[in-house]
TrEMBL record:
Family note: Belongs to the universal stress protein A family.
Organism: Salinigranum rubrum
Residue span(s) of domain UspA: 3-127
Pfam families in the record: Usp
Database matches in InterPro entries: Rossmann-like_a/b/a_fold, Universal_stress_UspA, UspA
The name this protein goes by in its record: Universal stress protein
PANTHER family xrefs: STRESS RESPONSE PROTEIN NHAX, UNIVERSAL STRESS PROTEIN UP12
Amino acid sequence: MYHVIIGIDEDEEHAKLCAEEVAGMPGEGSEKRVTLIHSFTDNPSGASATQLAPVRAAGDVLDEAGIEYEVTESSGDPAEAIVDAGDEADADLIVIGGRKRSPAGKALFGSVTQTVILNAGRPVMVTGVPESN
């Protein structure tokens, strides 16, 4: 079974796009397993990842494709959580959504995508920016 980790942020369209890319990969839905991970950097209300619209949206796409998935959550640095989840699960692939950012913006503010690409010991797929952005 092909195991994919999808990093889910606060952007519902990114989440759906990531899930759609996994659903469109070769093979039947039953041959794939996905872990959706959301890392809370601030969670004063004590929400669960399963309550978040982006997580639910990705889950809906995976359900439609017949792909088994689970939801995990963490707190702290999202890039570290995604890489750690990939390592712990010995995942075949990590999927994350890209963003349009200037080179200066990446240098000043860092980039979860860039950090995952540089630190993951496995393939990383970066989806594009949804057309509405």
